[in-house]
Amino acid sequence: MTDLTLVINLGSSSIKAALVDSTGAFLWHSGRSIAADEPLEDVLHNWLEPDLDPHRQQVGLIGHRVVHGGERFTAPTQITEEVLATLELLTPNAPLHNPPALKGMAWATTWAPSLPQWACFDTAFHSSMPAAAYTYAIPAAFRTKGFRRFGFHGINHQHIAETVADRWRSQNKDPSTLRLVSAHLGAGASLAAIHGGRCIDTTMGFTPLEGLVMATRSGNLDPGLMLGLMREGYSADQMSAILQKESGLKGLSGFSGDMREIREAAAAGHIGAIAALDVFRHRLLQLLGSMAASLGGVDVLALTGGVGEHDKKLQKELAEALHWWGNYSTMVIPADEEGMIARLCRRHNETPASAAVG
Fold first, then answer.
1. 269 with 316, same domain?
2. Number of structural domains in the chain
3. 352 pLDDT band (50/70/90 cuts)?
4. Catalytic one among 37, 42, 53, 122?
5. Domain holding 58: CATH number?
6. Residue 122 appears among annotated catalytic residues
7. Which of 130, 149, 190, 243 could be bridged to 134 by S-S, CB 3.0 to 4.6 A?
8. Which among 188, 238, 184 is positioned nearest to 214, based on CA atoms?
9. Global confidence as pTM
10. In what order do the strands lie in the sheet with 117-121?
11. Same domain flag for 12 and 57
12. How far apart are CA 62 and CA 9, in angstroms?
C-alpha cells in the first residue's frame, strides 16, 4: 500500500526529510547539517537512502520544498522537465536554496523514477498579496523584469494560518474574518499579515534579506548604505556575504547569531548582546505594528519557529509591549514545514487540475 509521502526539505546547509502517512502522522522524521565541503549527492545517497529503502514500496508521492517560485509558480506544482528548466532560470533569485532543491529532485528521480514529485514554494502563499503590498517604488523598466516583493517562509505561514483557522472554527468563530499575524522567528525571521486565510502583507521582499533582524541577516537597510559600500570598493559578493552571514544578531553582538547564547551573555552584562536584543526587539515591534496596520487590527498573534516557540522572555516582552493592540490572543504553534508540504502535495496530487501555475 503506497500511502506514504516522502518530504525532502533541503536548505543551504541542512537537510530535513520525513515520511508522512495519509492521516498526517510522521512515520519517520530526521535531519542533519551539511558540511561546506560535503557533496550533497553523497549525503542523499549515504544518509538518506539507507533510512528510506525499507519503506520504498510504501511511498507513493514525493514533495520538495523550493524557496523561490518567482511570479510563475503560485501553488504546488508537479515536477516535469519543463518545470525543472524554469526552476533553473530562477536560481539567481535564491542561489543558496534553489540549487540544493534541484539536486534533491534529481536524486528522487533516480531513487523512484515512477513516482510523482511535487514542488511546494515558500513564495506561493504570499502570491495573494495585493499589488500595493508587493510593488517596489522603482521605474517600470525594473518592475517588468520581476523586481518585486515575494515573501518567504510561506509554507510555514500557511501551516500557521490553517492551524489557527481550525482553532478559531472550534470556538464557533468565523475564520473568514480572522485577522492573524504569523510570526516566524528563528534563524530566519518574517511576519505575515493574514486576513481570512489569505496573506495580504509580509516583511520579507525580493529576497529573504528584507525585514526583521535575523541570526546573521541584516533585515531592513537604507539602500544608500549599500551604495556607500559599493563606493568603498566592496563587490556584490562581499556585500552578500556581509549582509547574509555576518550581520543580524551576530553582527550586533559581535560573537553569535544564536538567541540562546545572546540571552545568556546579556544576562551576564555583555554590551553587544544587550544591544543585539534591543535592536531585534525594536525592529520586531516596529514591523508587528506595520502588520497590524495592514490588517486594520489583530485577533491572533501566532508565534512559531525556534525563537518564537521557545523564548519565554520574548513572549512576555511582546505581551507587555503590545497592550495597545487591545483584545487579541497569542498562540504558540510549532513550525511544521514537512507536514504542510505533505498535506499540500496530497491535495494537489488528488486534484491536479487545481495546481495553479501563474
1. yes
2. 2
3. low
4. 122
5. 3.30.420.40
6. yes
7. 149
8. 188
9. 0.94
10. 26-33, 14-20, 4-10, 59-66, 117-121, 77-78
11. yes
12. 11
